[in-house]
Amino acid sequence: MLRFSCCLTLAVLLAGPVFAQDSVISLQPPGASEAVSVPDTADDADASSSEEPGPPPPCGGKTITIARMPWPTAQLLAEIHARLVQQQFGCDVEVVPGDLAVTPSSMGANGQPAVAPELWITRVADVWNTALKTEEVRQAGTTYSDATFEGWFVPDYEVAAHPDVTTIAGLKANWKDFLAPGQKKARFISCPPDWACSVINRNLIRANGLEGVFDIVEPANRFELDTLISEAESRKQPILFYYWQPNAVLAQFAFKQVDLGPFDKDSFVCLGRVACADPKPSGFSPDPVIVALAQWVFLDAPEVAAYFQRAHMPFAEMNTLLQNLSEPGATIESVADAFVAARGEIWQPWVGKPAQ
What we know:
The protein is an alpha/beta fold. It folds into 2 domains: 2-19 and 60-146 and 287-347, 3-Layer(aba) Sandwich (D-Maltodextrin-Binding Protein, domain 2); 150-271, D-Maltodextrin-Binding Protein, domain 2 (3-Layer(aba) Sandwich), CATH 3.40.190. It is 41% helix and 14% strand. The protein has 17 helices and 10 strands. The strands form 3 sheets. The chain has a 5-stranded mixed sheet, sandwiched between helices. The protein is elongated, with a radius of gyration of 24 Å. It starts with a helix and ends in a 9-residue tail after the last helix. The relative contact order is 0.19.
């Protein structure tokens, strides 16, 4: 059942269109040079020059606390980063419980935890903006390699037969290949009708001129959505469907994303309305999901801050990790251990080493 539930929290997060990017403020992280201290007096300077300085303690002698949020992707990232920061930089590391709303407030108030590896800042824009104003917390970088989490997909075997079906023009030209026996229209599998994405998908079908050739199927729930996709794939039936990443389903089977064109903010606002009179094409809205760092990490542990600025997890890799998590006996910790042991080509650039 984990395969069907492990990303349910993200499904809820991603179910609606997001227009909050403009409401999220940004603040550049401090430079490492700000951490350099200057002796207050000549006596201090003489004393320091007369002694051979020892090597500085790793991470400024402080423990790097990493927030482990309640959903699986954030839990995996917390454990993966904890292992790499400890192994590669010699830091004392502690994984601590985290919460989407409480963690940025705590980071802004007292710089703890030190790291939040997957923070959906548009979901808590007011909390995040307030935290930034304290100058105790900063954005290090983006959590994932891509900023657009939702899309339309077709299976690899259909792309092999008709390479152009990853475009709207290709779907129009090849829609009959998606027909099941006895059908007059092909099926587009959307999301449940009480999810905001169902409204967007209905309008996108209209905006792209596909309403005459594709019928929209809206499953009752997440379980039925996954079942429809799994059944079609197991029978090698052509299928066009909506989904989101990262997600175990997209690692279990081989799919390609349909190019819906660039994101257009004004068009997307209308796509999110039930009464959108004249829908226009647009890609799905990007969503800023970030690694948040306490300010003191930039100043006292700049090498760790640089690591988190480079640590962008590819969607495909996280999809696979979630699939691995669904295996019998798998745990967050065991999957994190396996990633660190076997996937150096992904994480070595994070620590500043060439991928091998």
